[in-house]
Design goal:
Elements (H helix, E strand, L loop, with lengths): L13 H21 L11 H4 L28 H11 L6 E3 H5 L5 H11 L6 E3 H9 L1
Antiparallel strand pairs: 1-2
Length: 137
Amino acid sequence: MAKKRKIRRTKKSKSNNILLIGGAVVLLAIVALSQINTGPVVKVKDSNVSDIKKTKEASKPLNIPKKEKAINKKSINERELMIRFAELDWNSNKKVSKSEYLYYFKNKSTGKKQFKIIDKDKSGSISYKEYKAYRIR
């Protein structure tokens, strides 16, 4: 009987597989990027941009009304106000009591002063209308 030859096979390491896959990905990326055609770069001359410079009206200053700065004007998001009011109103009775309001203040005396400012009708609770009026001001 003939002896069977033992063949040693090396185990493929994971790091070799990762290197091969990484190299293939880089090669594909290079091939893909080389196929992109950006076209020739064309410079635009000022005279081709517009014919406005050639008209007589272009020399006159434009009469544009002044706009208010966005910094000075508060933008009100009704949905945000409703969500914030709902967060304050734990028991969902459509009114924020003093205890519900003061929960968010570390300094309770500051919270009490602010609550008095918001509660215009002195009912002891803040309605949505009062809260909205305070936030809009």
